């Protein structure tokens, strides 16, 4: 270590004053660059990204509050009997695209070319209004032909109806 220091000092003294000044300035610039990249640049990046992160957290919070409200609404609803749930489910079901087959506390639903949006809406209403829960789904995706090609579903669903007086969770 002492040899290395002695060699460096000898080389330094062998340089002209102009070369010594140039090496000193280069060393100072490298020190400033190192300090910038370690201490200042990460803090500036964090500050720059803070608005985006704040917006994302706000969206997540709004989504979580909506889920909380939905969960509280599900907890406070009045439980339906099996017969009431079945009547509600039959009232929600469109005629030719969906056919219901009741098997005890379960309902098998046959789907034929049901548009994706209609199926999603029907499932949400079946959950909220008839308190029916999906147990199984065997679906095949298809596309309609023509100018308005949309995703449609074929297949079957099995839904569970609420037990008498029991709240579906």
What is the fold's blueprint, element by element?
Layout: H1 2-14, H2 17-76, H3 82-92, E1 98-103, E2 106-115, H4 116-129, E3 133-143, E4 151-160
Describe the protein.
With 169 residues, this protein is of the alpha+beta class. It has 4 helices and 4 strands. A 4-stranded antiparallel β-sheet has the order 1-2-4-3, with helices on one face. Strand 3 and strand 4 form a beta hairpin. Helix 3 packs antiparallel against helix 4. The longest helix is centred in the N-terminal third of the chain and has 60 residues. It is rod-shaped, with a radius of gyration of 35 Å. The termini are far apart. The C terminus is likely disordered.
Could you name the ranges where pLDDT drops below 50 across 5 or more consecutive residues? Answer: 165-169
What oligomeric assembly is this protein in?
single chain
Basic shape: rod-shaped
Going across the major beta sheet, what is the strand order?
Answer: 1-2-4-3
Q: Give average pLDDT, whole number.
A: 88
Q: The biggest beta sheet, please? A: 4 strands, antiparallel
The helix content, as a percent range, equals 55-70%
By secondary-structure content and strand pairing, the structural class works out as alpha+beta
Number of helices: 4
- Compute the gyration radius: what is it? 35 Å
Report the count of strand segments: 4
Q: How far is it from the N-terminal to the C-terminal residue, by CA?
A: 74 Å
> Could you give the order of the helices and strands?
HHHEEHEE
Q: Estimate what percentage of residues fall within beta strands.
A: 15-25%
